[in-house]
Amino acid sequence: MKCGLLGGKLAHSYSPQIHSQLGNYSYSLFEKSAEELEDFLKNGDFTGLNVTIPYKKSVIPYCAELSDCAKMLGAVNTVVRRNDGSLIGHNTDYSGFATMLRTSGLSVSGKKVLVLGSGGASNTVVAVLQAQGADPVVISRSGENNYEKLHLHSDAAVIVNATPVGMYPKVGVSPVDLTLFPALEGVLDLIYNPARTQLLLDAESLGLIACNGLEMLVAQAKESAQWFTGNLISDDVIPKIHRSLKNSMENIILIGMPGCGKTTVGGLLAKRTSKNFVDADEYLAEKAGKTIPEIFADIGEAGFRRLETQTLADLGKQSGLVIATGGGCVTVDRNYPLLRQNGTLFWLQRSISKLPVDGRPLSQTNDLEKMYEARKPMYQRFADHIVDNNCEPETAANTIAKILEGNV
User: Fold this and answer.
1) Strand pairing class (209-211; 186-189)
2) What CATH number labels 250-404?
3) 222 Cβ contact list (under 8 Å, min separation 6)
4) Nearest Cα to Cα of residue 81 among 125, 45, 30
5) Is 176 helix (H, G, I), strand (E, B) or coil?
């Protein structure tokens, strides 16, 4: 069987990774222009296709038959070539979002749900919400319910983002201010890169349920695989593949005092997880063409912190890295969302007496005990997990790996 993903730009697709765990078939990326679409659908060498932007509607005229779900939504994201050569179109995004909503734990029955965006993804979300007894309200840039009238919907219980606002690489922006919605219980964002959009980070800061679209991606792929193969696949594979994909995509971020072992532990973690390792200070120094002490001498700590934030903005929006940060990155609040958007943050702790000071300007000129006491609440605020590194670095690396694997 030859399957794959049809779309315009597919360089960052995770579909091959997902489908490799769903069935015994090849899965390729088919980037096609609009001019190439007809010939590919009629004569292309494929058994089954997933279809993404911008062709979910364009493929419909080439399908001899549509499933009820595809008819209802007016969009196709799964195509199967039948034995007679004709194509049947289906839509698995519906079940994908239904799975995402169910596993979020949010109850929407009888509640107002704001759906941001009015495109194809929005139509799918609205259909699922209506089936669940919700009262969905679509917010668009124009029309009766627009972003200028959000105050009329302060009673919304859930917000679903079905727009590309906040998606990589244009990260750090949110389509709405969540403080406008005092009754809000949770936020679902169909975006999965970054793992936490600014919208989801804002939801986390308010203590709300916050879920990205990665599980939806996996769930819709699982149903597509059933269409490709004709075989039922247990829903049990969804959380397993979701966890595997999340771990491969997510950055491992190490924070802690200068000299606490972030670079050593980070290198070990990179080898264990097959992720790329980046020392943020070394990355910064290479970009600046100067050593860290030279940067401090030239522009002082304030200037260094500005360069550090630029560095973390660059690294933090990437995926699949192990990042050893500078010891003082936690002193700048803006650095937290830059690191958190794609990462899990581990605070490495080591006794002050074991911290080296060579080549570390602030460690050489400050009392380390006082520095630690000042930074301790900052490390606590940034950290998802605390790991002791008063041991062999392999032990600390193993502890972090076990946490990520869900074994701690």
Assistant:
1) parallel
2) 3.40.50.300
3) 22, 233, 235, 237, 238, 241
4) 45
5) coil
Catalytic-role residue among 56, 111, 262, 317: 56
For residues 194 and 169, give the distance between their C-alpha atoms in angstroms, rounded to a whole number: 8
Identical fold for domains 2-91+217-240 and 95-212, yes or no, is yes
Strand stretches in 133-185, DSSP E: 135-139, 158-161
Go through 136-156 and write b for each residue having 16 or more CB atoms within 10 A of its CB, e for each that does not.
bbbbbeeeebeeeebeebeeb
Cis peptide before 182 (omega within 30 of 0): no
CATH architecture classification, 95-212: 3-Layer(aba) Sandwich (3.40)
Is residue 262 part of the annotated active site? The answer reads no
> Per-10-residue mean pLDDT for the chain, 408 residues long?
94 92 95 97 96 95 97 96 96 97 97 95 96 97 91 97 94 96 98 96 97 97 97 96 93 96 97 96 96 93 96 96 97 97 97 78 73 95 97 96 80
> In the chain, what are the domain boundaries?
2-91+217-240, 95-212, 250-404
* Rounded Cα gap, residues 60 and 50, in angstroms: 13
Instruction: State the CB neighbour count (10 A cutoff) for residue 41.
Output: 22
Whether domain 2-91+217-240 has CATH 3.40.50.10860: the reply is yes
**Helix or strand or coil: residue 138?**
strand
Q: β-pairing, 78-81 with 87-90?
A: antiparallel
